[in-house]
Amino acid sequence: MTATTYGWLVLLFPLLGMLIIAFGFRSLSARPSNLAAGWIGTAAIFLAFLAALGALISLQDHAPAHRQLTSSLWDYAKTMGIDAQLQILVDPLSVFMILIVTGVSTLIHLYSISYMEEDRGFARYFSYLNFFVFSMLLLVLAGNFLLLIVGWAFVGAASYLLISFWYRRTTATRAGIKAFVINVVGDAGLVLGTYFIFKHTGTLDFLKTFHAAPHVFHKGEADIVAGCVLLLVGAFAKSAQIPLHTWLPDAMEGPTPVSALIHAATMVTAGVYLIARMHVLFELAPAAQDVGAAIGAATLLIAGTIALTQTDIKRVIAYSTMSQIGYMIMGVSVGAYAAGLFHLMTHAFFKALLFMAAGSIIGAMAGEQSLDRMGGFRKALPFTFACFVIGGLALSGIPPFSGFFSKDEILLVTAELGGWHWALYVIGYIGAFLTAIYTFRMIFRAFYGQPVAEARELEGGHLHHAEVPTNPANGEVEDTGVGFPGPHHTIAERALPMKVAMSVLALGSIGAGLLQIPKVDFVIDDFLAPTFADSSLYDTHTKSGLLAFGLILGTIVGLAGIGVAYRIWVKQPSLAVVARERFRVIYTLFVNKWYFDELIGLVVVRPAAAMGRFAMGTFEQVFVQDTLIGGTTGIVRAGSAAVRAVQSGFLRYYAALLVLGVAGVGFYFLLQT
Amino acid sequence: MSIAWYLAVSAIVFSLGVVGVITRRNPLVVLLSLELMLNGANLALVAFSRMWGNGDGQILALIVMTVAACEVCIGLGMIVAIHRRRLPIDVDELRELQG
Amino acid sequence: MSALLFFIAGFGAIAGAVGVVVLRDPFFSVLALVGHLISLAILFLLLRAEFVAAVQVVVYAGAVMVLYVFVVAYVGDQSESLQARLRGAGPNGLGGHGSIGSDLRLGGAILGGALLVELLIALLGTGLGAISSKGAGYNPGRVGTESFGTAAYIGNLLLTRFLLAFEAASFLLLIAAVGAVVLARRRGGLGEEDERDVLTPLDLLRPQGTGTMAEGVGGPRR
């Protein structure tokens, strides 16, 4: 089978999984303990993963120069200069992405089988999750702008469905709407960007666009810069970069596996993928590249500072995601494509692992997510603790864990470029320092110190259950019916599927770095080379001295951060309180997330709401309802009332009308003669 | 006398009948005015028959008379029925046939 | 001679017509119509339509008007005072809604007048040239051996050329007779009096006025 056939299979399996679960919904959710939907969903994605492997293998059969294969199922339109087809592009970049997506998704599906057990929406969950995987694969495999936009939109829709999965929680539905609205802003940017590019190239097909672009656009021309900046808007919305990032922390309202999949490993990486895919266009618009790099760096830093102050464990990890995506965006914007994508891969592993481990400890706390209430779980949750540590070390960039190799390569490339990019280099290391601090702050707070009541209960062998289920965000009392989380909480130590999934990811976090050890092996570089053959920035070889310096600096920074966190949160917790008081203003800024929500509320939401009120109150009510509709109906009513008077029932009136008619006709004929 | 005179009389009688139908409120008188109109038409028919010299007009006049007789039958029967139901004998009051 | 007779009969016809329309007592209206019918019969005679004239007197004035008299007598005296009538009041002295009554009195007169004028223009306009002429002679055509206007003449026509009309007219008479009997029947016949008070369960469920045109117009009787 050819690589493209495998590509279509990769798309087919999750779609089938979704349809089967969706249509069999009634029978699958008849009993809450029925796990069939979970296994069907997992099997579907696993089959997709196998097909992705098949695509990888059969792609490598081709010579490197011929590894960009397209396959079209259907022509939508071939008129007026638009060539819209149902077309996929199988090349190293897309195969890379689908492997990551299907691989991590399989593990997360497996994890979810245990995590979502006895939730009344079990089947619905897996149907949505399969739909999400299908959409993400469509986005990544798209061979033209049309399917990219379709996949992009579907992913946003799937994200909405999954964030507001527990739909009877108002916090969840609000978060879902927030995510969707911000994503739509990104969609608009993406479509407009596409238009700007299409205007000159006249084609929607990726390969044709990339071949035509250097001939059609001059470097730095206004249209291409505008198009790329708009594409960046789309990327920022999807990847939660400033200023379109406010939806990501709220998106933690969704179930933890959803956070792991969508908001760590796959959806938020769509922006990185977009920039990498469009590298030809971005290299023609250096201004856009600079914008991307700057925003990436800013996000990196800001998200890091916010994560230092958050108390909800999932939000800490969410801001960490935002920060790491900042690294990736920065990387692909300056031309470190392989490094950025490599970091995408390693980040998928350790971030998903961290989320899964967070799900485990949240289960031990019976749904409670605040770090303030957690402590001393080391003895009670040994496996979870180990996973947290592995993920944390990878995240902090400690060798030999995978995060170390990927992160430093990005920073090396920025240093290579020189000029103002040195600022990015510095910010990158400051960010790494902060990363280590907040990551281990989280770990130390949750696992060290005096065991809390739940931990002691668990050491005694009994998993804590909340008597009254409450919403961890606002404390509202809820029940365990449809639309709310189920009554069942579990921890990784007790659930085999969770253990298996987390173990695989832990191994990945530890070992994935081996794929691209600097100066030793270039697996990722070589694999992705055919895609980036037309890039002028791809093959930057790093100077040896800077390389060594960077690696050592990264290690030092990471260890220093862990040390600081240890000092404060293990040895002397009061230091944290003192620091909070000393730096009250800064602390307030960080803990309020730099007031972005309030700023957006003021600048965007309030005017929009006012416009909506005006539109509804004045325009709709007065103009359309009263004047247009009311006027039309009023005229008709008046007319019919007038005509109705003819049917009065008075015999004499009728007779008079008759005679009038006769007289009229006679008069007419008299005039004729 | 030329036919024109007869036709003039016929026109006057007819118009008087029209005025009666429209103006009077008693259904009996309305029916009588209707008879007037029919008679006016009859007169015109017979006059024309005389003018052309064949009998078609007279035959038609006879038929009209028959029809008038039938109509009077039914009309008066209705008035009798209305009277028996104690409803007012007034065309302005009897206006339920409306929409 | 004939001209004199014409004027007398014509005047009588018009006077009778005016009487029908103007007189307040319906009984007097009936009598006026009888007079009108007799005058019309004379006019028919002048027009050499002997049979039609005879039928007019015998059938129309003799039978139909007698029927009218009977009904007027049965229905009773419905006359009203002059002031009420001027107000446009009805035969019972009721009503007098200025809008409809007075409007139509004036409107009716105007309409009738307009119609008269038109008819006269139509008739006389073409016959102007013939006003002074004598018209057709006294020996119009014959049918077979019968003279114009005689009973035999009419009978011949009825049974040959106008047979269908003749039969249809007789059929119509039959229908009218049956209809009149049905209309004026006493209670206990078709039971129409009782039917009115029978409610079906469906009527109880439906709100009043449902399914009538009044509902379509917008609510109960306005």
Summarize the structure.
Chain A has helices spanning 3-23, 25-28, 36-60, 92-115, 122-141, 145-163, 170-201, 206-216, 222-239, 247-250, 256-265, 270-277, 279-283, 286-307, 313-334, 337-364, 382-396, 402-417, 421-447, 453-459, 496-511, 523-528, 544-571, 574-582, 584-591, 596-644, 651-672; strands at 69-79, 82-90.
What does this protein structure show overall?
The complex is a heterotrimer of chains A (673), B (99) and C (222). Chain A is mainly alpha-helical. In chain A, 71% of the residues lie in helices and 3% in strands. Chain A has a two-stranded antiparallel ribbon with strand order 1-2. In chain A, helix 1 (3-23) packs antiparallel against helix 3 (36-60). The radius of gyration of chain B is 17 Å and the shape is elongated. The model of chain B has no long low-confidence stretch (mean pLDDT 88). By secondary structure, chain B is mainly alpha-helical. Chain B has one domain (3-84): Helix Hairpins, CATH 1.10.287.3510. Chain B has helices at residues 3-23, 27-52, 56-84. Chain B starts with a helix and ends in a 15-residue tail after the last helix. Chain C contains 10 helices and no strands. Among the domains of chain C are: 1-94, Four Helix Bundle (Hemerythrin (Met), subunit A), CATH 1.20.120; 150-187. In chain C, helix 1 runs antiparallel to helix 2 (26-46) and helix 2 (26-46) packs antiparallel against helix 3 (50-75). The radius of gyration of chain C is 25 Å and the shape is extended. The chains are: A mainly alpha (673), B mainly alpha (99), C mainly alpha (222). The interface between B and C is large, with 73 and 95 residues.
